[in-house]
Batch of 3 targets.
Target 1
Amino acid sequence: MVEPIVVNLRYLAQEVSMPEEQVQSAVELFDAGLPVPFLARYRKDITRIADEERLRLIESTLKAARSLCERKMTILKTIDSQGKLTPELDTRIREARTVKRLEDLYLPFKAKRTTLAAGARTKGLEPLALDILNAAVAPDKLDERAAEFISVDKKVGSVADALLGAGYIIAEMFAEKAELFQVARENLHTHGILVTSKITGTKKEGGEVSAEGRAKREKVAADDSENGSAADLQTSSEEQKEEVKSEEEEVNEESVKSEDAEPDDNETAAETETATDTETPADEIQEITQAFQKFQEAQAEKGTPAVISQNTLKKKKKDETRKKLQEAKQRQQEHFEKQFSDYFSFSTRIRGIPAHQILAFNRAEQAKIIRVKIETDEEKTLLAVKSTCVPNEHVYEDFLTNCLKDALHRLVLPALEREIRSEMTTYGETQAVVSFGKNLRQLLLQPPVHRKRILAIDPGFKNGCKTVAIDEFGNLLAFETIFLVGNAERKARAAEKIAAMVRNYSIDLIAVGNGTGSRETAEAVAAMIEKEFADAPLSYTIVNEAGASVYSVSPAAKEEFPQYDPLLRGAVSIGRRLQDPLNELVKIDPASLGVGMYQHDIKSKHLKEKLTDVVGSCVNYVGVDVNTATPAVLTYIAGLNQLTARKIYEYRREHGPFRSREDLKSVSGFGTAAYTYSAGFLKIPDAVNPFDATRIHPESYELAAQILGKLGFTADDLRSPDKVQAITERIAAGRFGEVSMSLAAELGAGLQTVRDILDELRCPGRDPRDTLPPPVFRKNVMNIDDLTPDMEVTGTVQNIVNFGAFFDIGLHESGFVHISQMSVSFVRDAHELVSIGETVKLWVVTIDNDRKRVTCTMLPPGTEKMKYRESLHESRGERPERPPKERYEKRENAAPPADRPQRLERPVPPRSEQDRFKVRHDARRNDRKNDSPNPNREPRVFTAAAVKEAAKPISEKQKQGKEPLRSFSDLAQLLGRSGSGDSTGDKK
């Protein structure tokens, strides 16, 4: 019977770098079914963890640890059923800390597919392999021993065949050693090199390279060399990829339809005639051809239209379909080759590969543009692992070494390469998901534009621009379809329609989607504002419309606007996401919002779980008005699901708005647990109880009333802005921290709970997003031709990736800022300095009109960072290269060269507006330093170990062997190598 395995909380606490007591309390609450947002907000006094991310880290780590325990139990039971479980193996499996180590231990006991070693075992060669491995046969008798296994029936025809099969068995035994795998893995991680190479041609069925394909690839390669580097194309062009894919699908459908069509009588007759023609003599064919040509000439003179058979039309259609498909594939191939041209001949060490490069390798390999391989020096690897398999001075050392070499080349290294590629992919996907989560959180928490009427325009060429007017609450007022492409008269009519809608519906802002045609639309809107509303406060802004088309065909959109077409629904979504981004964007699949990196290459389950957690965290962080929230938003509230969210929505429509949080208990299926977990996040602005409009939990209402009483106020005072201001001043006068501690001690409540209540009483019902800067509103438009180097522009962050950020600078093209151009200090993560929706000042660096790319910097021209580097290099001059032996040799007490000037001190740049990012970065870094122990504390005192006492002299009986020796010290004295306590002793 296998003993059960439990999770070791000590190891779990070490992995998440938190105290064991905190981890244990969090695990107990997780097991009780409490959701993470509820724990992070209302159970801080128990867990002492206020960060939701840390709680989710504990939750995911706990899940992985329990999964590892389950795997251990499965392996132990499997090995035990085979009768091969030993106490030593049981202990090693239980102590395994990683999945890799566990699988290495389980490898010898796995059921294997047919291998060379398995075939050799069926031939009865395993005893010979064991004899060689254990040196049970003398070298001069090995051939005789191998000859005993020769068998015609088993297809062992010679001694060489027997030894070859024994070598296969030994190689597999070596490959199943966990120690060998571990050493080879470490060696490959240390010395392995990832190498990529371009695939130069496609092979046909006969194995020959297509000349046409070779010519096309050579042309693409030449184009790539002319166009230059495409390093900044590491973010995927998903729109082009999806466009090509949709075109291929369309072409395939046409092809299938044409191929599935049944031939008509004319086609059958034509085939019959063709078959007959093959038997017709050449003279008759020539006569018929000449007669037919004369007939065609006569028909042409008469003007009679030529007759084309159905067979000819279908063949022509098939050819056109095939040509379209080939052109679509060719465009996709050229796009991929330009995108990944930097990896046609590339090599790097395995350690330290950036996540975006890993995903780029994978995508290019999947598109069959490049080959990816991990290379290492097999001879060095062989020397590193030899001691784990081949004993020193073994009689068959050469034979076993060859077996080990075969095991490495054929079994171990390929398996490790697959393992490392899988680990790299997992790492890349994890980093991409983390980056996506940060971007999504910033996107959802963009500040809303309250109490504004919006005119939303969804740009388009062929079908026109869908224009809708929505009121302050997102309700549709009117809609129009305007055409901004065409002659001047058509454009003028479109501008008149826009101006009329602005006047008729008292529009405050115009929202233009950033899709196809957005630049032309923005130009028309800017011209209209300048002409018609020059003195009015009317302005426009560009809104990211990613995901609007996904929402427009979703069930939620059909339920809201069943009578309108999807294009109109998309325009409404563009306007609403300007009014309240969180309320609108939660209706859309997060993966379609376009703020990630290679999100279409990531495992959908992993991505969906992470993004769902992020959306839920944002919704619970802000809270929702239960009387206006849609079912899509209510679904993300802690403790609710789709069913309970739908029931709350239906109850509100049937009985009217909720007047208090207690009314939620009247909703069918809304139990005690759901009420406990969700009530604090559901706000009712005009409730009977003023606390219902805040994020104070109903279980703390009594405590909140006592706190207000201690401050000299009542709950009804929260309805008056003047009273709220007085409460804020009262708390500020006594200092927030001191007031919190005194009230917690006096009322016997948790300190964190008292802090949250006081924080909420200062601004009851506030929206945490209101403190963020609003979107950028414009009145004019800019073209890429208007840009010049060093030109100052205003940019809004659209997307953040590992190596930089993309900004909306008022063009159809995004401006890109590399991470090295964000601050004068080193920046590890771009999220430390910028966030989605943030507005910053930028300076143009380069403009590439051919590829429509604009590179910018957040550092003004002539920044001190550049001057410092230039002056440093100028003062040092050309540094002489060190001799090879001294290059990496550490020299102690070596004086600096006489010709080298003293290192310059790094100048501090002036505090200017553009350096606010550096200030914020340094402040965060100082905050982290302040969390560490006090640097001015007393130094640690280490006490030296006590000096060992002198050894006790041995007695005469011990010298004579009549008494046993007590220790190695006695033995040393007996041999005369060490004196006794008085430094005397016999020496022999």
Note: The longest strand covers residues 792-801.
Target 2
Amino acid sequence: MRALYRLAERPTWRLWAIVTSVSLLLLDGCSRCPAGQVFDERTNACLDHVVGIPCAADLSRSCAARRCENSSHCSAQAGAPTECRETPSGKMCVVPFEDGGADTACIFSGSATTLERACAESHALIYTCPGGGPTCTQRRCSSDLQCTDVVACVDGLCVQRGGAPVCYDADGRWFEPACDGGVTVPTYTCPGGGPTCNVKPCANTSQCAMVATSSECIDRLCVIRYLNPLGSLESYPICLDDAGSGYAPRCDGGVGDAGTIDAGSSDAGGFDAGSSDAGAIDAGSIDAGTMDAGPIDAGTIDAGSDAGVIDAGAPDAGPGIILTFTASPTTGDAGIPVTFTWTTNNADRCSLVPSLFSVLNPNDSVTLTVAATTTFTLTCYRQSEQESRSLTVTLTPPPVSITDFSLGPSPLSLGDEVYLSWTVENASACSIMPGALDAGPPGGTITTIPSGDTTFTLTCSGRGGPVNASASVVVIPNNPPNATILAPDAGATFELGDAISLEGTCTDDLAGGPDLWPSWSTVPGQQSVGSDLVTVTRTLPVGAHTVQLQCMDTLGKTDPTPPQTSFTITAPRVASASVAFAHMCLRTVSGKIFCAGDNRQGLLGNGSTSTIAVTRPARVGIRTDWAQVVTATSVTYARAGDGTVWLWAQGAPTPVQVGTATGWTHVASSGSHRCGLRGGELWCWGSNFRSQLGITNGSLTDPTRVGTASDWTWVATSSDGTCGLRGSTAWCWGRPLGTVFSTPGSITQLQVGPAITWATVSLGADFACGLDTAGALYCWGNDAAGQLGDGVPGASSPAPVRVGMASDWVEISTGSAHACGRRGSGSLWCWGDDSYGQLGNGDAGTIATPTQVGSATDWISVNAGGPSGIGTCGVRDGGVAFCWGIDDWGQAGVGQLAPTVQVPTPILFGP
């Protein structure tokens, strides 16, 4: 049965203390503050000695606690092992635990108890049975933490599973209120109607751990399970004594008091002839060896042997309850395990304090980890008797040590605070020099202002001490860094899209000082535009700009008067424009490309496929050697100065090179196919559904040579046809052809206007125009909108028809159903369809003969958009570009969204 009562050993235990009333506290050493107050180093002020601090489980409530300067201010609380420690609320009197922790000692009803208990007890509620029956005490709560003995906190009250109310007795034990006439505490009655005792109710096994570590919660009672002699698993409940400790109930017929052997059992009537005659005490039962003159003589059972002779204290005159009580070892270093062993004379149970072993076997041992010199008391119980023995384990405190001493920041500016942080073990007192700063153990943080470079030394006393640790701080002069601008020069001029290098330096007056960070911003507005040695593009718009350079060091110091420089960004000068259905691109004199309009298919080359319209042309990439740009319905092509060809479109929203070939001298593109010239050879690729590639193959993804001729000088494309020049002769294939409309088209190259010496040709959707070497203008194909310009709308012609008698035409460009051309005087003329204002005549309607656009005579370039164009752009002398026609996606580049732009309007460049 020894294993039946043995409890599991526990390595560490908290020591709970009861502290005396606040009226007994003597404020020794507080002469610098009035009575009832103590000095607080954090605020350098005298504060009330008794304060309210929040309850841990419910911060909205509080209990009374004591401030202190040192542990002597807490020692007046009789019998309580309290000491003064640093807490989040300042220096407070606390109850220490063996494992090194502590809890604030709070005052409630004139005595000290722990914070949680005080908060719980001070928030009780009286429960009254329905119908005005008996009452009992319930516990208010704000969380489950305050209902550790029951199931949960529901509606602010501790309740059982299912919501039944719970009441508490004076010792904090809970019971179910009996609302049938009385209030009952759970009890256990031995089998057969034997003695009863108060038992420990429970909701789960964890609630039985503080009574006995091997106990379990079965049928809502704390029990201990064991194997009986027959090998079956049985259990018995745990009874509670007046102190709340658990013990095993005696269910062998009595409860161990005087009522067990009384006058009714052993008086004269019990040992008379009728009870102890030859039949009761015969030779077989009480013979000469059992009841001879030695054990039952005249001194034992004589004439005076009545009921008082054999009473409760008469088992024998042998030893007391405790036979031995030892500890091993009894001396050593703090924190060592100590084994306590005891033997007893028929004890029922034992307890060992300080510890939580309240129900121990009569003959057993336990091992505890002891943190300091402690006197342990073993108390053993036998029926109604008890006996106690004490012994002291004397331990040497561990040596003092400093585990951390650090500071920060370092370096710091003169006049700023430095933060000192430390952690120590087993120290009785610590201080920091210089400044004689109080650094109480076990650790903390303080601030001070050093007057210069300083080495701080932490000194702690204790066993093996004193010990020291040092940390140093570097203090730098309070001087801000200096900024100097190296570029750009004041008054510099840049073209929009140019790379502007903002260069500057940041210095300070310390050799090897902290890192410095530059920051560029515009003035006024303080808009960030970059950092040191940055190339700024597309960030600053056209106009005058002033920027400043600001430097900042790691301490946050900045130059109070940062330097500034000013420069101007001008609009780029445009060389040519190319217009398509919903976007357009410009090539500048400096070799840059800018695009505007619909970017859903990546046609603007800015790396995105945004659905937001771009109403001001923005730069494409960073190249400055573009020689040609060509727009089409679903793709944009460009030719670079090194003879390479590039495109951007859906799936490739930034320029991507077409193949690896170089030497391209011209490129043309429509929505379905494109062609180019390289060394006089003609190459085409794309769709071939109308034989527009001039070959028998199907569609091609890579450029493929057309024929063997090597004297091609020009090429143009329509939606499903192609025309080119070989010397001064013009040839067309696909649909439409130069001499007849055919379906589905032909790969045969048919000569157009054999009698005409051609200088250039331009293709629209289903018509074409060209100039001869003498400056005469010819058109052929569909004339439904008057796009042939011969004054007879609808008179389509498969052969070239001369437009007017002028012979000073220098440029011709066709759109979907309109055309525009420049004459030698610098004037600009347009004709054909005007559904979207593409003629630039202020919505005068469709015109079947060339009509001058405005009165300007300085036009140097024009583009009507090719086979998908329903808008027009032109460039005037000085590189100023104008656009008109459809603008529903901002493709006119004039900075707005509008259905149409009716007259030539200057474009506005974006950043």
Note: Residues 1-31, 108-117, 253-318, 738-742 have pLDDT under 50 and may be disordered.
Target 3
Amino acid sequence: MAEEINPRKQPIAIGVDVGSTTVKAVVVDPVTKKILWSDYLRHQTKQAEFVLSFLERIAEAFPNVVQKDARLFITGSGGAPIGPHIGAKFVQEVNAVTLAVETLHPDVGSVCELGGQDAKIIIFKKNEETGQKTAITSMNDKCASGTGATIDKCVMKVGLPNEEVVKIEFDDRKLHHVAAKCGVFAETDIVNLVKSGIPSLEIMNSLADAIVMQNLSVLTRGNTLRHKVLLLGGPNTYLPFLRDCWRKRIPETWNDRGYDYPKDVPIDELIIVPENAQYYAAYGAVVYGLYEEANVGVYTGMDGLREFINHGRASRLGESAGPPLIKEMSELEEFKQHYTIPRFDAQKYAPKTKVRVVIGMDGGSTSSKAVMIDYESGELLKKEYQLSKGNPIADTKEILARLKQWVTDQDAELEVMGFGATGYAADVLQESVKSDANIVETVAHMMSATHYFGDVDVICDIGGQDIKVLFMQNGDIKNFRLSNQCSAGNGMLLQAMADQFGVPVTEYADVAFNAKLSPKFSYGCAVFLDSDRVNFQKEGYSKEELLAGLAQVLPKNVWQYVVQIPRMAELGKKFVLQGGTQHNLAALKAQVDYIKARVPGAEVYVHPHTGEAGAIGAAMETRRVVMRRGYSTFIGIDNAINLTYTSKNDEETRCHFCPNLCARTFIDTLTPDGGTSRYISGFSCEKGTVESEEAMLALTKTRKQLMKKFPNLVDYESKQVYRHFYDAEPMPEATQIIDDVKVSKGLLGIKKTAIQRPFQRSSAEAQEKRRRIRVGIPKVLNIWTLAPFLRTYLEALGIQKQNVVFSDYTSEEMWLEGGKYGSIDPCYPSKVAQAHIHNLLFHHHEEEEGGKKLKYIFFPCITHVPAGLNKVMDTASCPIVAGAPEVMKAAFTKETDFFAQRGIKYLDPAMTFTEPSLLKSQLFGSFGPELDITEDENDFAVDQAWKALAKVDEDLQAKGKAILEQVEEENRVAVLLLARPYHSDPCLIHGVLEEFQVLGYPIISMRSIP
């Protein structure tokens, strides 16, 4: 389309924002700072090419402006490598956005910007003395979670068209848990919600809420947003439900923190999305650049950029790049001859033939697959595949209808002898259509591979969301590895990357094979891979090269990140590759080359029905079960096709049998013959599997009996360490003579002389004062080990046992209420400390006259912990854990000093438990002046505290010894928890150990090992 001609002859200033996914450009009048021209396009990795295209279009639009009268300023994650080739001055994007806001909106107090991979928060604070504003900026530094890239991937998993996404309105009445810290975890949660039948609108609202709360609690770095708030960036511009979520949550944060904002002003005027919100970085680059000297940023034309695109980039990249997927076309042809998956032709039938079959279904994370096999011979007859539409029952109904249609179209008669399922959808299908077999995925894939290839050594299945690697021995599974916490290296990663480049996933291999070189991606986390991708784009790699590099990193993710076995040759020589991702020949070529390079003489096979391997295994197991049993439980194909169902998720379905209040989904099905069933999803424990109180009580009673029979020492320890169980010995009187050492300097050095002297006591007034003091301690981090020491130390000094107050146990409610002070980013067990400090401040401290007030909150910086072992290399605490108390102090004093406001003193002394003498000195330095104690009293209290700690260990070890002796005598198994001290926190361990208990396994902790 031809550009509209602007007759302007006066100078212009051009601003270009080269982002991770888009290029934005504006033309600005240098005098009035008015935008004269603008555009915004996805660059599909061709950053330099799109910049060139924009410059060509700007030249067309402003033909009368001579080159020397144009100044050019560039910003964004991909701007720096391009700038020198066109004479552009590079401007850091936070500075650009800040200046754009200050220019266009001088009354704005805060900015929240979400880009393709970047998130920024800018808060303008006014200096009361000078009246000037200071911009406090914060940006996501190591993860793209909560940005447009995460939203794009989650939209794809939900299956909503873009035209529907932009119509969603925010509704917080039905929200579900979605991880916001990690984009990969968020995607996993989204998949689970989809497979549980949660409506798409609720899922997208839950994602928006998670993203907004993540930014408000972490990216603000403890600061409070000031009004007005400006929402910038593509996601905030184009997604109404995201904007509405900001408008819901920001005022709640203001109210929680006591921030005074104008409540008479409508929220949409306090939190606004301005016109041209997506262009603020590009516009700000111009505003910033115009303050430079006139000779800075003078546009030098397009020739240098063309040269860079055509020649300079390739020659520069060749120095550090890796090899391509193929070196010559003959290599590709030979590979295709060996590994192209053979064409499958479905069975043909004569009219009136009676077809007796078994159907196997694999309800995967991103697609559903089904196969039909012959009941008598087990021969594969027909395959069906479809991308998931968001509900496993709907997917199953559609696929079964197509399978039946295939038979009836041949005028044959279909008789389904059995139906089995595996994958994400297996549980809901077992309940709704009464599957004959609900088979574990690993077993399904093993049965399928051994059916086609006999005795194999390794089976590697790469699906949309999961990676499964099975190690075989004599036809059975010897061991296995699963990608249980990260989806890096799977099919969805490749598909998402292809989508970002505008390449259909079916054309991925054709594009990648055209690369002449490839960037060397670091294997690991998918989010870090995406960060690598952005960096490589900045260096100038083409989409062909990037897709080739991504294909080559896939086997590294499988074998180094998931499997983590350094010598692949020890696994065997016969490898079978299966899973839908093997249809991508680029990924398959990289996988085959990787294995053969590390396993001499390796035989690598591709499953002939690679995407349907799980479904084939489910069908084979179903056939075996039905033949052995003699009948099928399946409701029949017609009933299954005509099955009607309702999915309900509201307050009526919420589980109220414990404080977690899990949001459950009831999926009720009705068959044409009147059969009904209910499947419940969304629960986090067995209590959620029942509906009535009577059933729950019976279930709970059974669980309690099992848990009593099989003790859990981790749970016991979590309660025992916070109880008063050790009565400290009476403090010596002032008349009592004690042994001591007098240290003096002599001619020959330090001289130590044994002496006897009276024990030094503090005054009676000080002792009485200590009886009335209340001290709060958070139940976090290494306090889980040292609570008995801290409690007894304070009690031995005369503080009453009821006045040593610990915060409540961690809960989701505690976190939601008190976890919004933005402090520690990378570690949840440390980050949750802010909720515990909040709990002490607002739930254990009574403000009214005569109430139980806290005098101190005691949260020591524990630098070294007791190891309980001999000859260890070190006992230093994790730096994040050791420094958490200082960070908490900053979080609660940054804007409002909550401690001073409530009359509480915060104590966070360093404590080194590996040096007893130093420890006494550290505690005396902290509590001596505060409690008016003598050094003798301090030393005595420390000695008593050590005795209390030893008593706890003796008690736990005695119980641990009894359990070990019992399981040895009965030849049974006990479960040992190897974990950090704070994993004894019931909320942090998520009740996992209770599930082992009810299965008949006693639990012991590291501390209880005799």
Note: Residues 253 and 820 are 8 Å apart (CA to CA).
